[in-house]
Amino acid sequence: MSFFKKLKETITKQTDSVTEKFKDGLTKTRDNFSNKVNDLVSRYRKVDEDFFEELEEILIGADVGFDTVMELVEELRREVKRKNIQDPREVQAVISEKLVDIYESAGETSTELNIQTDGLTVILFVGVNGVGKTTTIGKLAHKFKSEGKNVLLAAGDTFRAGAIEQLEVWGERVGVDVIKQGAGSDPAAVMYDAVQSAKSRNADILICDTAGRLQNKVNLMKELEKVKRVIEREVPSAPHEVLLVLDATTGQNAMIQAKTFKEATDVTGIVLTKLDGTAKGGIVLAIRNELEIPVKFVGLGEKMDDLQEFNAEQYVYGLFADIVEKEAAEEEEE
Ligand code: GDP
Ligand code: MG
């Protein structure tokens, strides 16, 4: 069975709405990236060195990241040789197969959050201004709430104007309470309050927003350390997750931010937002392969239900949906 057919079968086992979300959210990337790959395979008559070089350019242009592209194309060369592939059109399936492989071989792929079965789970959100922390907290609160969990939010971004109000709007929309203090107050004090409230209300999950200023690494580290220390003192095993939010539309900048935060704090997972807003969705692979932190969620839009657990197969299907459908149908006929 071809890889496309297998992929189609795997996808079909999952909920249709998840497939739709990934497919819709990846429209821009698909239009850009897979059209270029389509064009490439139809222009070449044989798979030669020029073909691979053009492919490298396409991948780099989609923000896949230099090192990852080199690794990927090396794998492709080997596979094409091993299978003795002559027809460029046959390379398409191998490309998608290798994209899934490269994602999964980079280590832990579980998107599961470390949720405590008895007692409070504390999830801390970090990331620079504007990447989508507050929005993602709202979406995640909605997800937990709909699973029947008792959720509380902590308005730890006391720095940015309007940040507390923005979280409150999400709280109302989703139907969860927000623990806050005035603008300009010490975020660590907000966290202390929030943990106390969470305990006294028997909350299942406390999600903490933080300010995203990144004037320099020393300040960032100090602020995050202080916030974490307060949380840890009140709940010794917490924070159970530290989720770093990155904006997919910022490309290599997101990579730099990730490296900075990785040095400043123990990041347990990445949320990559605004995948719907970029034609360069290859950044997922770069982040995964070069940082070795699992991408736990992706943001595929601004609505409450536009946060999805990352899934490499859904992602690759979203990149090549039209070809996968066509090839799988042809194979069915044969
Ligand atoms: P914060 O400063 O990190 O808290 O970022 P915000 O949550 O305020 O988000 C900044 C902007 O990004 C807002 O306009 C959000 O609606 C938008 N945003 C966040 N996530 C997504 C996403 O997945 N897709 C799209 N299209 N927009 C998003
Ligand atoms: Mg915010």
Task: Kindly describe this structure.
- It is built from 13 helices and 8 strands.
- The protein is an alpha/beta fold and 334 residues long.
- The chain has 2 domains: 3-109 and 315-333, Up-down Bundle (Four Helix Bundle (Hemerythrin (Met), subunit A)), CATH 1.20.120.140; 121-313, Rossmann fold (3-Layer(aba) Sandwich).
- Strand 6, helix 12 and strand 7 (295-299) form a beta-alpha-beta unit.
- The mean pLDDT is 92.
- The site of magnesium ion has 5 residues, from helix 7.
Label this structure with key terms.
GTP-binding, Rossmann fold, EC 3.6.5.4, single chain, binds magnesium ion, 8 strands, SR_rcpt_FtsY, receptor, 2 domains, alpha/beta, GTP binding, binds guanosine-5'-diphosphate, 334 residues, 13 helices, 8-stranded mixed beta sheet, Four Helix Bundle (Hemerythrin (Met), subunit A)
Q: Which range does the strand content fall in?
A: 5-15%
Number of domains: 2
Q: How many whole angstroms does the radius of gyration measure?
A: 22 Å
CATH architecture of the largest domain: 3-Layer(aba) Sandwich
* Spatial shape: elongated
DSSP summary, beta strand count: 8
> In the CATH hierarchy, what is the class of the largest domain?
Alpha Beta
Distance between the termini: 12 Å
Give every kind of bound small molecule, once each.
Answer: guanosine-5'-diphosphate, magnesium ion
Keywords: Cell cycle, Cell division, Cell membrane, Cytoplasm, GTP-binding, Hydrolase, Membrane, Nucleotide-binding, Receptor
Membrane topology: Peripheral membrane protein
Family: Belongs to the GTP-binding SRP family. FtsY subfamily.
Catalytic activity: GTP + H2O = GDP + phosphate + H(+)
